[in-house]
């Protein structure tokens, strides 16, 4: 089944790239996954962008085309018409996770508690449950301002 989403304008795409670059600038060294979720008519659309970076050497590894596709859905989030969220996971012995919700198109940092609750929320039933199995090996962290 298709998910219907609004078509973002050029200004939304420009803003999405600004948010994307802000996240990358505030992300430390390591292997990371950014996930954007946007609710549309008929379900939730999501995209992931995997990348690795080491700031000291200025090295960055990420697929440019996947970055563009990621920003297309991010542009829907910054348009502000659909409930949306952005999660950054840094992979390691204990994964670190931070995230943002979009309020009127502006990314608002989530607290540790809000992140933990989001991981316990079952979107299919609308009920709270226990954390998923991967939450035990996850550190929920405060999210930096990326607006």
Overall helicity = 25-40%
Low-confidence runs: none
Oligomer: single chain
H/E element sequence:
HEEEHEEEHEEE
Overall shape: globular
SS summary, helix count: 3
Strand percentage lies at: 35-45%
What is the makeup of the main sheet? 7 strands, mixed
Task: Tell me about this structure.
This protein has helices at residues 10-26, 64-79, 112-120; strands spanning 30-40, 43-54, 59-62, 84-91, 95-103, 106-109, 121-122, 127-128, 138-140. The mean pLDDT is 89. The N and C termini lie far apart (33 Å). The strands form two sheets. Strands 1, 2, 3, 4, 5, 6 and 9 form a seven-stranded mixed sheet that branches. The protein has a two-stranded antiparallel sheet with strand order 7-8. It has one domain. Helix 1 (10-26) crosses helix 2 (64-79). With 147 residues, the protein is α+β, with helices and mostly antiparallel strands. The longest helix has 17 residues, at 10-26. It has three helices and nine strands; from the N terminus they run H-E-E-E-H-E-E-E-H-E-E-E.
Give a quick set of tags describing it.
147 residues; alpha+beta; two-stranded antiparallel ribbon; 37% strand
List the helices and strands and how they pair.
Blueprint: H1 10-26, E1 30-40, E2 43-54, E3 59-62, H2 64-79, E4 84-91, E5 95-103, E6 106-109, H3 112-120, E7 121-122, E8 127-128, E9 138-140
Parallel strand pairs: 5-9
Antiparallel strand pairs: 1-2, 1-4, 2-3, 4-5, 5-6, 7-8
Helix pairs in contact: 1-2
Kindly summarize this structure in a few lines.
The protein has 147 residues and is α+β, with helices and mostly antiparallel strands. The chain contains 3 helices and 9 strands. It has one domain (10-140).
